[in-house]
Amino acid sequence: MTTSVLPQTATDRLRWAVADGWTVTRRDLAHWVRQPGPVIFSLLFSVMIVLMFGYLFGGAMAMPGRAGGGQASGDYREFLMPGMFVMTMLFGVGETVSAVTADARKGVTDRFRAMPMAPSAVVVGRGTADMLNAILVLLVMIACGFAVGWRAHGGVPETVLAFVLVLLLRFALIWIGIYLGLIIKGEEGVTMVQTLEFPLGFLSSAFVAPSTMPGWLGAVAEWNPLSSTILATRELFGNPGWGGDSWITQHALLMAIVWPLLLVAIFFPLAVRRYAALGR
Amino acid sequence: MGGTGRAVSAEGLGKRYGETAALDGFDLTVPEGTVCGLLGPNGAGKTTAVRILATLLRPDGGRAEVAGFDVASRPAEVRASIGLVGQHAAVDEVLSGKQNLEMFGRLYHLSPGRARRRADELLARFELAGTGNKPAKQYSGGMRRRLDLAASLILEPAVLFLDEPTTGLDPRSRNEVWEAVRSLVDGGTSVLLTTQYLDEADQLAGQIAVLDRGRVVANGTPDRLKSLIGAERIDVVVHHAGEISTAVAVIGRISGNDPELDVDNRRISAPVRDRVAALTDVVRALHDAGIEAEDIALRRPTLDEVFLRLTGHRAGRPAEEVAT
Ligand SMILES: Nc1ncnc2c1ncn2[C@@H]1O[C@H](COP(=O)(O)OP(=O)(O)OP(=O)(O)O)[C@@H](O)[C@H]1O
Ligand SMILES: [Mg+2]
What we know:
heterodimer, A: 280 residues, mainly alpha, 11 helices, elongated, B: 324 residues, alpha/beta, Alpha-Beta Plaits, four-stranded antiparallel beta sheet, 27% strand, binds adenosine-5'-triphosphate, binds magnesium ion
């Protein structure tokens, strides 16, 4: 019999964790190669929203800091793109949830759990694959932004930092996605998460400035963690629509780091606990 | 293995879901190198038992060892010694069969080359070699089951769990799974399989444990279980429905037990002790009563009858329906 040898030392265990995590990542990547439909569809969807908001609604959108309301819609597209970068990261949550629930439903998660592999690999592999996917999505959105006239006006360090902040937010959202995926059972739950992404996005500074919303709604939108990343990246890119009177908008850069770390601090342990509780 | 000579030993396992006791004092021992059939109707607790033994579920009470390792304190060792074929095929449906087996092989820490060779071997063995690059989603139910089984055999496990491995399969696929199980056992693997099919347990298992409402209510060889309810039975089929009640009285008197009745088929069945004497007695008594028998036969009891006798309800029917 070819019974496998279990890792004895901490180094062995770490090697297993890395190797197994990477095997699971490769499997998730293979899904996109073998079944590119959903990925392409979600990219087209994001591009469509850019076009729709940039050209269809753009002229009617009120932007802060321009008196007289006479701004060109080219400015709106400058305003929109940082919001869209963040929105595509948010759309990723639905994809994470959908992948996690599908594995649980099909029994694949159980098969992994009954194998002598590193227990962390399932979650780590999912997270790594989703991060790689997020980078791809972001590259496509940058190209799309360039095509509609968006530009990063800051220096290279600012631009790089802005994209790092966007990916940091995605990293935090992965743990929310994995956690939700582990509690949600059916496909209806996945649809619900995907449906809720839009109101969550509208209730941020992604499409319109919170200062134009009714008082309390504007405050909610400003405190939406998405808004901090959006405002911070607008500032770093030199795009219009950042800054404001409230504390939260004035500290967007700080909060674009604090919010994701806080979300990770909450949802990473929750997801790990939930995964361990599958045996209960 | 841990050298205990036992592939599985469970003592007093319990698992509750709210009001339902899925397992309630579950005891079972499966000696190394044997096949044990865990037989029970829907909801009896078969899947719960298998999931606990495969370290997927923590029991509320009791203890269990698999391949000599405690499932609670040495789950990693247990996982390295088992293969699990769950009730529903658990393969990646987007990947091809080969990709599935290679991935699982890598997760069993085979080198890339060995994982590939092992995948090819298993694909050939389970007649999946011709499926090429097709995603497992497009496989038939039987092919998916075989892929599932192949994935559980990558490391040639010491103990294999099969949860209703042939439910929903056509007779040909069912025979293929049976053949695979038999050849594994020849190779020294111990098997615990659950089933609702009495003939399946009879076919494959040297030991049958009958599970009812979370508890093993009978345990032994198929022959021993059958002998529990009387060595032999006589079956009589009468021509006319009107003759049934008289025939029941006649047969009951000779058997000394209340006969079982299948009205639709006009079949009367009762245990007998002295087979030849009982046969001649029944033939003569029926003739004297003026009843024409369509068919009279002596036979061993089926496991269905064993189940009915042991649990008070028929197999394949939920316990609650009969309990009321
Ligand atoms: N996750 C769960 N939550 C609540 N109840 C459960 C859960 N899993 C099992 N049960 C209950 O426990 C009992 C035993 O279930 P189990 O799945 O072990 O039965 P089974 O013998 O495998 O049945 P089947 O032949 O239908 O597969 C059933 O009454 C079932 O409803
Ligand atoms: Mg079951």
